[in-house]
Specification:
single chain; alpha/beta
Length: 200
């Protein structure tokens, strides 16, 4: 049976619009895939620590030469990577914070994008090592930014996932959520219709 990994990156956990949209997608996805395994990582409940110098040095260390502290950092990163490696589908709830991605999503990326594990360097440049996966990103914004210079998220997330080998990436946007109740209702209705279509 397929396996799905859901990342909730909202500061507001299940109360965030991006979390609610991604939850709705996962529920719809499971309807036609009974028995599918779903793993949920909610950064508001279980924060991912920011990568520091000690963590980066741990990534560079050789297995036999690691301190206990370095091994603990490797073990944590390995656990995040194992969740991603096992998943056939990655679902990300993605609010827009100050024109960027939530910092804990960046922290997660810093722990799972590891040379020799999820990508490698070759004579032709970097090569992603995670293949055959689909990713769905539910991007929620207070204003309307898609297709403008202010949308720094779309290319960044698409490029990062592609860098580690995940190239089948689909975005669903719910924009204008802070531009009045009518705008919010219209955006959420359209997003729910789109997620229902792609979850079928």
């Amino acid at each position: 049976m397929p396996k799905l990994l859901q990342l909730k990156t909202s500061l507001f956990a299940n109360h965030g619009q991006s979390s609610q949209l991604s939850d709705a997608f996962v529920a719809a996805w499971q309807v036609s895939r009974p028995g599918a395994q779903v793993t949920v990582r909610d950064f508001a409940v279980d924060p991912v620590p920011h990568l520091d110098g000690a963590g980066f040095q741990a990534f560079l260390s050789q297995p036999g030469a690691r301190s206990a502290e370095q091994q603990a950092k490797i073990d944590y990163s390995d656990a995040l990577i194992a969740e991603l490696q096992a998943a056939d589908v990655l679902v990300i709830g993605l609010p827009l914070y100050n024109l960027g991605v939530p910092s804990m999503l960046k922290s997660w990326i810093d722990h799972v994008a590891r040379a020799g594990v999820t990508f490698r360097y070759t004579e032709n440049g970097p090569q992603g090592l995670l293949f055959g996966k689909q990713a769905y990103v539910f991007a929620t914004r207070g204003g309307r930014y898609a297709g403008t210079a202010f949308d720094t998220q779309t290319d960044f997330v698409r490029n990062v996932l592609g860098f580690i080998g995940i190239r089948d990436v689909e975005f669903v946007y719910a924009e204008g959520l802070n531009m009045g109740e009518e705008s919010k209702a219209t955006a959420l209705q359209a997003a729910h219709a789109e997620l229902a279509r792609i979850a079928a």
